């Protein structure tokens, strides 16, 4: 028993502060203090609290999951038999979803260009403009797109318009961030040279910086369009247009549960098509 | 202008020549431009602008007013009842719950992703396995998070369903990035270990794990950052977190509560994003 404890003790000591090693040439190498054990202990503590707050328990998960009468499987069973006759009625909302995300991505990406100019620390020297632009951008990014959709729905009423604007705002936030990070890495030689000929800042930005960032800008915008399709699919939940409305309806109404697979399948096909198209175009750009 | 240029030195002549011999891409640009324009017109046709809601402007002003100071309505003391309290209906507790949902959900998702990613990597299970895996991943990523939420409410409503929804919806992205890391494994290291006579377990311990840890950790942290945002809306379908309070308050014009929620969500997301970026840069560029 005593031997066991000394073993545990030395194991703990080695994990938290490994003893120095004596190398063959007699020099002593002190290993760096490891942080991993502390991180792991921290994770376990947080995990304990997290499980408490969320009532998480593997036992409940396993028993309820395989409860075929009331569990999730009983719900999924209601998706069958699939109501394929619903298919023609999915096409219009799907097209609307694509339209919303295309227009939203376009508007957002177009607004992102001047914002990125103001937010990159190598082009904008004014601290106030720089910080406030970045603050606005991070506020735009930190809220989920759905909250913007609810907000714009209150202003513009139901339909595709609030959804499109919500997508535009979100796209603006992410594309502008990726873009100013890109601008900060480029060589400013040409920009300064053009400025030294007397051109204005905006003029030299257009002539020197834009051609350099254009391929990545296009690729970022395409990427935003690609991810927006998936976001646009849920905006209908709050009445902001697109397929989400039909999906919400199909999930909530017991009689319409057999439509869920059709709708999800159509979203799946759209996402795969647009992702592949966008990836093909981005490869051509890169 | 041209006369002026011609009188300059020969180097400038070369520049002019180079300028004129630049590839002519006007035609290509016209085609791409007209495709985009056509798409824009088609997309714009989906939107019907019925004018701003009669209360629209009012709502904007109110939201801004309450955002600056949530207690603007003296009849509804928002700050004391929702912000400065740790009660279970208080925004602080709800945000704590939201972060915990994201935390445990991300961890669960990452744990599920590890075997899944190994099973669908091209260098382990070949083309068929990787194709099936990639289809499953796209399917998981396509199904909106609410659908997962509603399905898992059958296990247990509230935060538990949120955890499961976050976990399953994370598996898509996490395993996609895990697979990329696994497919990028440097085989030379394994061969070198082979030549020293290492056993399979030793090869995994010293050859495989060290190559994957950094990417796995940074992927998981990045997903945690996204999941906190996702968890803030899961409450809409009854899957726990701050979402129900927020969306409900927005819908019922309780802008004071909305403002308090935003006051809490925005800084929390911001801080998480800041530390996540810091840790991930440290992981990818080395200590």
Query: What is the count of structural domains of chain A?
Result: 1
CATH T-level topology of chain A: MetI-like fold
By DSSP (H or I, 4+ residues per run), the number of helices of chain B equals 13
| Strand/helix succession of chain B | HHHHHHHHHHHHH
Order of helices and strands of chain A: HEEHHHHHHHHHHH
Q: What sort of overall outline of chain B do the alpha carbons produce when their principal axes are compared?
A: extended
Alpha carbon gyration radius of chain B: 27 Å
* Classification by helices and strands of chain A: mainly alpha
How many separate domains make up the residues of chain B? 2
Largest sheet of chain B: none
Helix content percent band of chain B: over 70%
CATH superfamily of chain A, please?
A: MetI-like
The CATH architecture name of the largest domain in chain B reads Orthogonal Bundle
Lateral arrangement of strands in the main beta sheet of chain A: 1-2
Major beta-sheet overview of chain A: 2 strands, antiparallel
Helix content of chain A: over 70%
Q: How widely separated are the two ends of chain A? A: 65 Å
Multimerization status: heterodimer
Mean pLDDT figure of chain A: 86
The counted number of beta strands of chain B is 0
Distance between the termini of chain B: 56 Å
What does this structure look like?
- The complex is a heterodimer of chains A (286) and B (287).
- Chain A is an all-alpha fold and 286 residues long.
- Chain A contains twelve helices and two strands.
- Chain A has helices at 2-16, 36-53, 58-65, 72-77, 88-119, 127-142, 145-156, 160-183, 189-196, 201-235, 244-252, 260-285, and strands spanning 21-22, 28-29.
- A two-stranded antiparallel sheet of chain A has the order 1-2.
- In chain A, helix 5 (88-119) runs parallel beside helix 8, helix 5 runs antiparallel to helix 10 (201-235) and helix 9 (189-196) crosses helix 10 (201-235).
- Chain A starts with a helix and ends with a helix.
- The mean pLDDT of chain A is 86.
- Chain B is an all-alpha fold and 287 residues long.
- In chain B, 77% of the residues lie in helices and 0% in strands.
- In chain B, helix 6 (91-119) packs antiparallel against helix 7 (122-142), helix 7 runs antiparallel to helix 9 (159-183) and helix 11 packs antiparallel against helix 13 (255-285).
- The model of chain B has no long low-confidence stretch (mean pLDDT 83).
